[in-house]
Amino acid sequence: MKIGITLKLFLAFFTTSIIVIITMLVAVRCSFQSGFLDYINRVEIERLDALAVIIADEYEKQGDWSFIKNKKGIWHRLIISHLRSTKGGDYKLENFDNNQEEQSLDLTDLGLRLELLDAEKEFVAGNRQFGGNTVLKPINNSIDEIIGWLSITPSTALVDTVDIQFTEQQNNTALIISIVSIFFAALIAVLVAQHLLRPIKTLVDATRALTAGNFDTRIEVTGVDEVAQLQNDFNSLALTLEKNEQSRRQWIADISHELRTPMAVLLGEVEALQDGVRKPSQENLHSLHSEIIRVNKLIDDLYQLSMSDIGALDYRKEQIELTGVLDDVVTSFTEQLRSKSIQTRIEYDTSHTYLVFADTRRLYQLFSNLLQNTLRYTNPGGRCQISCAKNDREVTVNWQDSEPGVPEHLLEYLFDRLFRVEESRNRDSGGAGLGLSICKNITEAHDGKINVQPSALGGLWFQISFPTPFVRSR
User: Fold this and answer.
1) Global pTM value
2) N or C: where does the chain have the smaller number of CB atoms within 10 Å of the terminal CB?
3) Domains in the chain, please, with CATH?
4) Mind listing the pLDDT tens digit for each residue in 182-198?
């Protein structure tokens, strides 16, 4: 049978309560019985003062212990006199029947535990006590001299009927209180379990809604405990999933648009050629070829990005000179830069080496994307300035271009996929918005960092940092 968490919590609380109550009941009963017995013994020992007075009176009348030595009947009567005196009776020996002096009387529990000793603690009357836990009470005469001792062994169990009845009454009361406590413990356990599980059930329902695709589901946060933290985390997760879903839909829409535009141009061009509206010519073929290259570039970027996301891009890292890769990239784009009259300058200290542990092909791809970004968006006649710096921990490439720039509030989105500024740096420039995302993935795959901020030249300033080979993390 499947046991729910509500029942589990109830059983946990209820079982714990029962264990505590039973433990307390046993402890209280043992403590009460032991304490009550101690109390009875203390009272009994204190009342021996009255018996000591009776014995002292008789001793002074007789002058020595001969009146009681080896005479059990008198000893028994003295004890009974003591018991009567504690209840307001007459304790004088003359009131007893002399015919019963030597007869054997029923001994009380006190008589079995009591012994009379002389001043030198020699046995006189009573039951001889051999235990080590006896208590001695002095017997003093009228001039306060010790003439003897009463030796008593404390009782180890209750024998008086009234005492036993009182103890049983207290035990029964404790048992009733325990039963009532168990009932209230069960009630409280139910209420506490329901209270604790209420937010959990809310989380369960919300999780099911989230699983069903309702990413706008939110939970009201109550309290400041761990459950409240879990509720906050759930809301954060739901918000993240909602944003991811929105990004996914936007991604599909943007990719569809990016593919549809060149495909529409291609379809129109081909249909025009098929219908004879346009004649095959070098110019028409060049237009078709350009659109095919655009589609192929988009597909290749998507492939590279997806491979990077799943960690499937091949990286063959080795210790390389970073400035050599920069020089090769700029040289390969010489004609394109010249066609837009963009002045490009690389600055670095030739007396230093800028070593990094990296894959040469991927760094070439990284810097090529940055240079294509500059070519695509920088106004004709602009500038591109590249410099290198290093310290003991990292090598930094500073990449700056001239106008147009990007509003500061949009800089954080530049590395998002398919993001483009819908002003000067727009779709008319031909980019699909994937190049900078690929740059970020390549940089992070080399344990590096890439940041962007406004450039003093009017455009963008990219800062790409790589750890030196001596401090790289892997």
Assistant:
1) 0.48
2) N
3) 5-152 (no CATH), 226-309 (1.10.287.130), 318-467 (3.30.565.10)
4) 888 888 888 887 777 77
